[in-house]
Write a structure and sequence with these properties.
Order of helices and strands: HHEEHHH
Number of helices: 5
Strand content: under 5%
Number of strands: 2
Strand order of the largest sheet: 1-2
Distance between the termini: 63 Å
Length: 124
């Protein structure tokens, strides 16, 4: 089945401008077009975009995503390299989660303090 850019945009909750940008930046090298130049997304393209979104939303820069995608296109000979990329990214995510967890604890501490002293109470 083939999907239009609008259908993919709605399915992935991404603006069409983002989908065009990803294509322009070379993140969709297998994307097919009609004779008129209209993008036609396959199920495989949509799955790839879901992975791109996952990596991007978790902090991987687009250049690194593109390098990862190129490794994927090279086939099974790059499996170990791809695994290393994902393991490194996972470690980065875990570090980010630790930082966010500490930040959340600090904010909760402050909120508890403000609640104790009554800063958030509205006097009638």
């Amino acid at each position: 089945m083939e999907y239009s850019i609008k259908q993919v945009s709605e399915r992935l909750q991404l603006p069409t401008s983002t989908l065009r940008y990803y294509d322009k930046e070379g993140l969709m090298p297998l994307l097919k077009r009609t004779d008129y130049g209209t993008r036609q997304y396959s199920e495989l393209d949509v799955c790839w975009l879901e992975l791109v979104c996952c990596l991007k939303n978790s902090g991987m820069p687009l250049d690194d995503i593109k390098r990862f995608m190129m490794l994927c296109l090279e086939g099974s000979s790059t499996c170990e390299q791809r695994k290393e990329v994902l393991e490194k990214h996972k470690a980065n995510i875990l570090r980010q989660m630790e930082v966010l967890s500490r930040s959340l604890a600090t904010i909760n501490f402050k909120l508890d303090h403000y609640n104790e002293i009554g800063i958030f109470h509205i006097d009638g």
